[in-house]
Amino acid sequence: MNRTFGRVLLMIGCVGGALLGASRSAPAVPVAAARTEIGVDYVSSGVGVLGSGCGTITGSGVCIHDARQLDPAVCGDGVLGSGELCDDGNLIDGDGCDGDCTVQCPKWEVDFSLLTAAANVGALQLSVDYSSAAGDFAGAGPTVECTSHVSGVQFAADDDETTREVGLGWVTETGFSGPQLLATCTFGATGFPGLEQLQLSVVDASDIDLNPISVSVGVELRETPDRFDCAAYCGDGFTQPANEETCDDGNTVNGDACSNTCQPAICGDGVTQVGIEQCDDGNLIDADGCDAKCAFPCPKWEVDFSLADASASVGALQLSVDYAGTAGDFVGSGHTVQCTNRVRGALFAGVDDEEAQALNLAWATESGFSAPHSLATCTFDAAGVPSPGEFSVNVADAAGTDLNPITASIVLDVRGTSECPGFCGDSTVAFLEECDDGNYTSTDGCTNACQVALCGDGFEQPANDETCDDANRVNTDDCTNLCQTAACGDAFVHVGVEQCDDGNSSNGDACLDTCTTARCGDGFIRISVEQCDDANSANTDSCLNTCHAATCGDGYLRAGVELCDDGNLSNADGCPTNCKPAVCGDGFIRIGFEQCDDANSSDADACPGTCNAARCGDGFVRTGFEQCDDGNSSNTDGCPTNCKAATCGDGFVQQGVEECDDANTTGGDGCSAGCQRQRICGDATGDGKIVATDALRELRRAVGQDVDCPDWACDVNDDGKILTVDALLVLNVAVGLPAALVCGEPTALVLRLMTPDALGALQFQVDYTGAGELPGDGNEVHCEGLVSGASFAFLDMPSSLLNVAMIALDGFSGPRSIARCEFMPRAYVGPEDFVVTILDASAPSTEPVQGVEVQALPY
């Protein structure tokens, strides 16, 4: 069956974009026969679904069941037995089952069941081809009757007796599942139809292509003895002479060889036989518009319809023309009235209803209508002469959905044709014809309306290089107003297909050659808009996802090129404009981290390698500015805090080198020109001045208090004793009175370590017995350590032996002065008067350390 269910399902909707309908596109599923006893497995749980005892399942999954009983039986016993087509319990003929148990006019019920549990399509279509069924299988007078058993769905059925096909369709929102009984259809047949004579095809009707689907459909056939209808009727396929039937073609269609009254079609019966007769006016009279041969004679009448009202500005116009009141038998030209559109560039349609003698004409245009304007010319045949007043014309605005009437004046002009026959297609160019090539082909330069073919007339003209013609002037559909099939690059945007179309093949503008809108990331560089386009969204390559070329400072780290990128152009943060992490020596001063950066590694300029501004004490000697820089704040080493090499007279006592430094090189002021301490007679405090406190200290020593007042400084009359008279002499000098102070010459013993070996602990012994009579013996010798950071201890023993020891965590080495001891001899003594033994107390043995120098200096 080539028809679909479109006209039925138009009212109930679509599923998946496709109208539900039967289709021959899906392969038919052959149905083979299987035999079993009637009623064995038809009804299950009262729901009418085929049971598990299906007779045969074909390779395509179709369940076959034939309910004919094969058991022998007696005709008339009411039980269907072997060889019986029916058994109604009697032997009466004419009641639907005659006396030999054959069916006179049986009906057969066919059940269709869905067996597949997973068939979840939303629209299901089943096509049943019964063209090979036995006997006269014309349906249950005149069509097959089908009932759906699926609740809550939309259902449609259509029987085509010509092709002998039944189409069944279901639409549901929830989809289908099995097993369930789909439908029961009732057929009528003179012979018994076998299931193997039914060809099935199942498709997914929600798919626009109606693709076959693999679902199992069960089929069961049974006759219905309780529903026989044996009353003969025209169209039942049986010729009944008793009912004055001379033919019965199984239908009630007029226009074929057997009319709907079951009489052979003849000229003059009032029914036009399609393909045989041009007309049939119910008589055999010539010159009445339909002659005795049921053909159209002359004359023909042309009616012009013109718009006279200039105010009709609608975009779509419709004329309803009622010509039932015209004189004569006015049945049209051929089979329908022929109309020619006179409105250029407008869509036109005309439909003639001969039975109602009504003609509908419609136009649609983008620009609207203006008057006066000829709308159309229609050609009629009539036995009498029609006049304009015999036509009833209504005008409506077809742009709305309600076809509202409008007040527009329509002028009719009725005239006979100048020659007979004078119609489009007679090879003669007649009135209002632009051409006439003797055919009704609209693709050869002259349309079937005898108008010169042009783009927009709805006919594709290959000779005019047209590849399409959709009868409109729209450039956004499948066919442009140049009558070329829409294609990318034709400069027209095909709605729903193209995003843009600029008519060129350039990929450097706003529309690509694929007719998609250019965008960043499509792989094409849009001129003046994009700097690059690498068709990816990565921000770590040479082209960002903004389609700008990657640069230092864009905020994205370019792999293999940049080590950092903080998105700014500052050279004072952690990532300067070279996109390398900030480091000392890169030439950029990092705020909060660097004071300077001169892009070199020199430590002798204003910006050393630490990127802190050069200063005295940073450990780097700045050329031209500093003589030294030992990186500390000590003023007792070789480089004081003014970064000038330590010298005598600079005011800083260089430990181990100087005993004093009074910022001058003048002697006699307590610190000699060589920066050695000078003993001033009477200076008990050792501050280089004689003041009252010195006299007080001497007085306290004189009365026996334990104060530091060395004999060489406090015995100012050099009598070997410290008495109040010494304090009085010092007091006189302190207040400016003349007084002579005479003290003994002191001696200082300086021990210097000459070996470069590092020592952690050192112990030495000084034997000063050779120095003659020295005061002391545990009372007068005073020693001090000269090694910074070292612990120092000494002991003066009565045996004229002096023990000295020192230890240092970091060790110490020579050459350097390590200790100083003061003596007050009565006469001059020299280094040779002292015997010094130095031991490395950190070593396991106490072997003497070599490289010791002893200096005896005037104090």
Poorly predicted runs:
1-71, 138-142, 331-335
Radius of gyration: 66 Å
**Which geometry do the CA atoms define?**
elongated
As laid out across the biggest beta sheet, the strand order is: 2-3-11-4-9-6
Number of helices: 4
Give an account of the 3D structure:
The chain is mainly β and 859 residues long. 4% of the residues lie in helices and 21% in strands. It is built from four helices and 28 strands. The strands form six sheets. Strands 2-3-11-4-9-6 form a six-stranded mixed beta sheet, with no helix packed on it. It has a five-stranded antiparallel beta sheet with strand order 1-10-5-8-7, with no helix packed on it. The longest helix is centred in the last third of the chain and has 12 residues. The N terminus is likely disordered.
